[in-house]
Specification:
With 228 residues, this protein is α/β, with parallel strands linked by helices. It is built from eight helices and ten strands. The strands form two sheets. It has a six-stranded mixed sheet, sandwiched between helices. Strands 2-1-4-5 form a four-stranded antiparallel sheet. The radius of gyration is 17 Å and the shape is globular. Bound molecules: adenosine-5'-diphosphate (ADP) (2 copies). Keywords: ATP-binding, Nucleotide-binding, Transport.
Amino acid sequence: TAIIQIENLSKQYGSGTKALSDVSLDIQEGEIIALLGPNGAGKTTLISVICGLVVPTGGTVRVGGHDIRTDWRAARKLIGLVPQEIALEPFEKVMNCVRFTRGLYGEGPDDAYIEQVLRSLALWDKRDAATRELSGGMKRRVLIAKALAHRPKVLFLDEPTAGVDVALRREMWEVVDRLRREGVTIILTTHYLEEAEEMADRIGVINHGRLLLVRPTSELMGEFGRKT
Ligand code: ADP
Ligand code: ADP
């Protein structure tokens, strides 16, 4: 069965904005899905609802079978979220940042696992560096390491390459590719078609709060008349 089950989800903010309308989607374990849409489409709202950070107006979300509203604690353990903004403790060392996040989830220390995460993100050599000493790309990778600290089954990347240059964008694609090979389920948002095509197995097109279509990437690119 699907690791994430979204049924008839809707969200209307107090301001009256309908950010999500009747969104249904199943996400399988191990797949990489891109939510593609312009600014204001509802992508961040969708991710925030799935992660239990925003309460939906209607519908249900299950993560690993746990209802996000009634069984939030269990669901949350399965989820790692990389937010859009870079927020790191400037004077904290990389290794300690990741250790600390594990603690937030009530997980005991596991430095062997943290080493594995830092190595897979090419951060092991920087483990004793303070985060303020790192480049922008490294900081983004530290955010991913923090999101992976408690061994989630699903990783959410909200606009992982927003405002970064081409080189850094490629670097992020490679990071996602490495995580894919480790079997992590990934849900990312983007407003770049090229990025969705490069990273995802499946693309969901979202606009005005509606999930307009969900297709395997190869099929969708075929419809646009492009080679994949
Ligand atoms: P809720 O449904 O949670 O009551 P509100 O509409 O009351 O949502 O807004 C919650 C918070 O989000 C408020 O602090 C508000 O200022 C802020 N906010 C309102 N509109 C937007 C927007 N378009 N984008 C981001 N934040 C917003
Ligand atoms: P995206 O991530 O695709 O840019 P969002 O989910 O951030 O889209 O926003 C969807 C819609 O909901 C937009 O119209 C946005 O202004 C509105 N919105 C987002 N957050 C809030 C909030 N906290 N309060 C009120 N409106 C919001």
